[in-house]
Structure prediction request, 274 residues.
Amino acid sequence: MELTGSIEDYPEGIVVVVDKPYRWTSADVIRKVKWMAIKHFHKKNLKVGHAGTLDPLATGVLLVCIGKATKLAETFQKARKQYIAGVTFGATTASYDLEKEVDGFCDLGGVSEEALRGVLPSFVGEQDQVAPLFSAKSVDGVRVYEIARKRYKAGLPVDELDVLQASRINIYDLSLLSFRGGVPSGRRATLLEGQQEIVSKASSRINVAEVPEGLPQAEILVDCSKGTYIRALARDLGEALGSGAFLHSLRRTKNGGFSVEEALSIEDIASIFR
Prediction:
């Protein structure tokens, strides 16, 4: 792919399908692409935006709109999306992913591949979902994650906050791609005692928490509507099995009609914007 040196040659703008790197925020990607585009086109007031935020610990399709294409961002955001979610059962975190450390362990008696397959159909269709407290949802003009972070840093329980209303979402399909059971139950108690010690000594400065060993994990393909929080889905799946769960990995494979196979790395994009 080659681009001319004038943005005027692209009257409808440019849509760059980015494979967002792990531990980059969506804003990081925008800043990087915007810098490259401005340098390439020699146009300081160039509009650049994205269509649908991805969490820092997620990877995959992030649509970056340049120039007139920014008008399409809202249309792309409304489109259905597809993810591959890695879910760990038997433990919880305040953020429902690895941005926060594991804060507790749960009973695994009801967790199995058969049980998970049994509850997945109940999550397909229109439903109400409560977003994670560590999210960009707003309450009275304040981002909820700002409230949650203050409580978390103060050592106060985040799950006691009751400020979010449920939102209507639609999950079109859920497919279990793989399931790996945990360690044998005879070893589990000893293992979890050690993990609880790790939790108590965890540092709040850790950017990415470790996944506890020996817990069951599943890989699930999720086809869903705008506004669906996969971290919240992981939480709800854990609760449906009488346990707890969090997201240990997330990759967006489709958004707005684009797939991850079309996505470019930051290095690929740098070679386009010379």
In short: The mean pLDDT is 86. The chain is about 25% helix and 30% strand.
